[in-house]
Amino acid sequence: MVVNPDEISKVIKQQIKSYSSKHDFSEVGTVIQVGDGIARVYGLHSAMSGELLEFPNGVYGMALNLDEKSIGVVIMGSDAGIKEGDPVKLTGRMAEVPVGDGMLGRVVNALGEPIDNRGPIAVEGYRRIENPAPSVIMRRSVNQPLQTGIKAIDALVPIGKGQRELIIGDRETGKTAIAIDTIINQKDKDVYCVYVAVGQKASTVARIIKVLNETGAMDYTTVVLSTASDSAPLQYLAPYAGCAIAEHWMHKGKDVLVVYDDLSKHAVAYRAISLLLRRPPGREAYPGDIFYLHSRLLERAACLSEEYGGGTLTALPIIETQEGDISAYIPTNVISITDGQIYLEADLFNNGVRPAINPGFSVSRVGGSAQVKAMRKLAGPLRIEFAQYKELAAFSQFGSDLDQDTLRRLNHGDRIMEVLKQPQYRPMPVEDQVLIIYALNNGFLEDVDINRILRFQKDLIKYVDTHAVRIKEEIRGKGDISDELAKEIDAVIKEVKELYNYS
Description:
Layout: H1 5-18, E1 28-35, E2 38-42, E3 51-54, E4 60-66, E5 70-75, E6 87-94, E7 96-99, E8 107-108, E9 125-128, H2 151-156, E10 166-169, H3 175-184, E11 191-200, H4 202-214, E12 221-227, H5 232-250, E13 255-261, H6 263-276, H7 290-298, E14 302-303, E15 312-320, H8 329-337, E16 340-344, H9 346-350, E17 363-364, H10 373-396, H11 404-419, H12 430-441, H13 453-467, H14 469-478, H15 483-499
Parallel strand pairs: 8-12, 10-15, 10-16, 11-12, 11-13, 13-15
Antiparallel strand pairs: 1-2, 1-6, 2-5, 3-4, 3-6, 4-5, 7-9, 14-15, 16-17
């Protein structure tokens, strides 16, 4: 064996060059208790609330309880590989998610990791899931409509860009359907969408993703998914992760829509975490900061002023009620945070009125100022007539001799109910809505058989598309109906009624 001194000295020189005297100092604690997705850690006196901690098996946790002698940590994943005595390391990082245009069309979990088997995501950066809401100085008033494509909402309970509008009702009354219709209606409107599913069945979300793919809505939508089988910490993080993804686009001057489906299950997940962390329970066993849980999330929806980019973030939180009780704890909390609510009634849904929107309990506190002028003119009388109809319909059940005026109002109210009906996943452009509501308000539907109103609506829109395209173009361009245009619309409606027999 021949030893070459040159080679040995060369290797030694390389090792000296690559030698580093830097030391990795990181504070380490010890797991003293683990179970149910919660770990109690001794030590780590420098830990911050919301900071990420690393366990030996590579799983991360988030510090939530900072007690005097220990830390309560929620484990973001399985706790199967973690045992008492394991070291826990501080990372110095807060919980964050990847953001950027690469998220569009993707399905991710509460940590922003892709779960759609389409490979890694090309991200532009990372954003903390917990961010302060824009200040009053950064905001401007809501002045642009966010069209849902649903006549009953765009006319009676309009939503503006930057608004927080609650969708509330019992289970199986069409809450998610309204949110999905709104997402589908944003096609070609340059609005990015984020759909957050919290505690939903995986099969339900798979069906929603299929609809979004079939309608082409997935091209501008990100789905953040935390199913019922996921741990409570992941369900708790999902809405904040979805909001952080949306905020990135808002601060770049884009219009974004976020749907939180639903915050009732989010509150239940947070209650589970709080009870496991031994926090004192309050009303209905919810912790004392349950209001703050949702207020700090929904306050991040905003309409930013031009100096800050002019972007908007519109939030559509969903809340499930029990037996229509909107005065329960979580519903009243979220109602007080939002700028109005769309209340869906089980009785209306079961009677075939879909969407089952109750105009008495539903309100929009800012959307009216964002409506297009034509819709605002038409919606005023419509709202009053609808309210009068609901009262008369209740009283008319007890009496048989009704005068002509009451019969006329009831007849008109029946037609309002029929016009506001709309099939699922078929949002309607605002100019089509204006046409049919104009015909309704101006008495053109009084002699149309109630069972043929939806057919008349279809024929009218088809006729305008074929023979009078200018009408729609002017409504779309100016957002108003001039006297000359009104005469043209009157003539077209009369032609359609003469062409087809609706009596």
